[in-house]
């Protein structure tokens, strides 16, 4: 009897331990946590240092966090580090060393909220992290770049090419934090342009990953192997949520970059790059994905679960490519002079920062056989002829409504002129010009994408600065244009 009881207890112990060690986190549960703990004061990706400072500093009141100012940026903005956890494994996470790559900073704010919660069904995850990890977070390494929403710092240096020279105070701060702490694991958090796709597919690389090389030979030592395995775990979760939308970054060694050098200095370094997702211009969905994969990875490091993964599975992740465009028009007929030919047209809309907003400037990226390119938006324009728009020259004195702008398009105008316009940017699907000669269009690579698509002499589509407007069913959203 006693023997049986012992066996039973052993059996229970075996299963309960086995369960605790082997169970992977359910991504739906992590999604729930993301919804619950999303920092509501940040709603778009152009937030500034001043917006996150209160969220960092208020953690001083929470004994679970230690908040420390590490130093200041070129322009005097404080860079903080938050510490959390009582465990042995040292993990460092830093975000936004490129000022306009803000997605993961939002996720870190959400993670701070999550770590402060309790009695919400997530305590086991939190406890595993708190008991096993010694965490250091450095959100927004480049606050001056964030202020201007640009990549580089106030010296116009790319911090990710300054890991060795350490010319920038921000680079010295990051290196100093690393040297003090000597993390075993590091998360290097960036954004990539939205035009990355998983190679040979139309799927955007919504998240790209990399365990950077530490030498030109791209060797795999124990340090890099740990990073490769953590990434395999992240990829497994992502494949369940966004199948096919993960890309692997090129692992060519960059001797000046932080990620590569962290790996070289002995920190198993994981690069996460947030890319594009259809209909998510402010990357609020990708913010959730970051929350989910970062927490998942922290949990798997805390429990050492990631050790189960195979290095080969990392190399199975498709490579990144950059074959996406905002708008792909297939089989457009171009007639000019006495020439006639049929091409695919790939159009991108580049974001440009304005004072308090941003606008886009479109251009034809390429034309011809673009079968290896893919559009976030695609139209088969078989049977359609590209035609030029007109500019309404008499100066207007009233702002147009969206409906009126579309009426102008239907009459063949792609631009309207004003002597004066009160705003610098607008959201109308028509070019607003202060002088007639600022209107640009064309049918060659690099041209601004302003034209109509006609069939049997009828205008069915307007392409206004790269935005597609279906004139028979005009629903226009998300247009961001400048006043010329
Ligand atoms: Zn970057």
List keywords for this structure.
single chain, 484 residues, alpha/beta, Aminopeptidase, Urease, subunit C, domain 1, 2 domains, eight-stranded mixed β-sheet, 12 helices, binds zinc ion
Question: What does this protein structure show overall?
Answer:
The chain has 484 residues and is an alpha/beta fold. It has two domains: 304 residues, Aminopeptidase; 159 residues, Urease, subunit C, domain 1 (Roll), CATH 2.30.40. It is built from twelve helices and 23 strands. The protein has an eight-stranded mixed beta sheet, with helices on both faces. The radius of gyration is 26 Å and the shape is elongated. The protein starts with a helix and ends with a strand. About 2% of the residues have low confidence. The site of zinc ion has 3 residues, from loops.
Question: Which helices and strands appear, and what pairs or packs with what?
Answer:
Elements: H1 2-22, H2 27-37, H3 49-57, E1 65-72, E2 78-84, E3 89-95, H4 103-116, H5 123-132, E4 133-138, H6 143-148, H7 169-181, E5 185-191, E6 197-198, E7 207-210, H8 222-241, E8 246-248, H9 258-264, E9 268-274, H10 284-302, H11 311-315, E10 320-321, E11 324-336, E12 339-353, E13 358-368, E14 374-380, E15 385-387, E16 390-396, H12 402-410, E17 413-418, E18 425-426, E19 431-433, E20 451-455, E21 458-464, E22 467-470, E23 481-482
Parallel strand pairs: 3-4, 3-5, 5-9, 7-8, 11-14, 11-15, 16-17, 17-19
Antiparallel strand pairs: 1-2, 2-4, 6-10, 7-9, 11-12, 12-13, 15-20, 18-23, 20-21, 21-22
The chain binds zinc ion.
